């Protein structure tokens, strides 16, 4: 230990030998960066995070008629608030439950009207975390099912995996049961692949929700190409 690569440090009566490299300022910075980069997303216990405790019913953004948040032309609602804290999150500002503006009846009416356009395929829920904003998302998807049945499809992104959602609270399961497609799982920076269809990292899956619920196991979207 006491060789040319080590430095002896004495504090009070204690003596330790520390590797010289740990004392290079640049190295310390890059080690901290590595440590930060290695920190993954947070992993909740079942029912640990509840929309009833967390949601402020705020909206980070609403983007009607876009081509990127799923199949076809879609209306996308970005809800505010997410607990997963994935390093490299594409929408960090929307992790804050107080970010953005309140969800209003006027916005809901506008979304319903926009979905009525014949060229619009459906709604996409993103965030933030839709499953931690079930007060907003459930109200909206129930109204869509009431007014359009299954004529319009509903996609949602979630940091929760399918298996985690199966152990989750009633409101989350009810939201899931109203979806057609779920893109599941946290964004994992080490698994990032920008060539994937509709997802940022290869752990995430595009799940056919209705078939998965019927068959009791995850069924991947049959239009998946990559
Ligand atoms: S789950 Fe999505 S919104 Fe939440 S921190 Fe991760 S990437 Fe961001």
- Total domain modules: 2
> Ions, cofactors, ligands: which are bound?
iron/sulfur cluster
Gyration radius (Cα, Å) is: 22 Å
Helix content: 25-40%
Number of helices: 7
Taken in chain order, the helices and strands follow as EEHHEEEHEHEHHEEH
Return the CATH architecture of the largest domain. Alpha-Beta Barrel
How many strands, what sense, and barrel or not for the largest sheet?
7 strands, mixed
Low-confidence spans: pLDDT under 50, at least 5 residues? Answer: 9-18, 21-28
Would you identify the CATH H-level superfamily of the largest domain? Aldolase class I
Structural class: alpha/beta
Could you tell me the mean pLDDT? 89
Strand order of the largest sheet: 5-3-4-6-7-8-9
Distance between the termini: 51 Å
Cofactor: [4Fe-4S] cluster
EC number: 1.97.1.4
Protein name: Anaerobic ribonucleoside-triphosphate reductase activating protein
Region (Disordered): 22-48
Looking at this protein, list some descriptive labels.
TIM Barrel; Organic_radical-activating; two-stranded antiparallel ribbon; globular; alpha/beta; 226 residues; 28% helix; 2 domains; 9 strands; binds iron/sulfur cluster; metal-binding
Task: Provide structural commentary.
The protein has 226 residues and is of the alpha/beta class. It has two domains: 6-37, no CATH class; 51-215, Aldolase class I (TIM Barrel). Helices cover 28% and strands 22% of the residues. It is built from seven helices and nine strands; from the N terminus they run ββααβββαβαβααββα. A seven-stranded mixed β-sheet has the order 5-3-4-6-7-8-9. Strand 6, helix 4 and strand 7 (153-157) form a beta-alpha-beta unit. Helix 4 (134-148) runs parallel beside helix 6 (170-177). It starts with 5 loop residues before the first strand and ends in an 11-residue tail after the last helix. 31% of the residues are buried. Bound molecules: iron/sulfur cluster. Iron/sulfur cluster binds next to loops. It holds the Pfam family Fer4_12. One of its GO terms (molecular function) is ribonucleoside-diphosphate reductase activity, thioredoxin disulfide as acceptor. Residues 30-41 have a biased composition (Basic residues). It comes from Ligilactobacillus salivarius (strain UCC118).
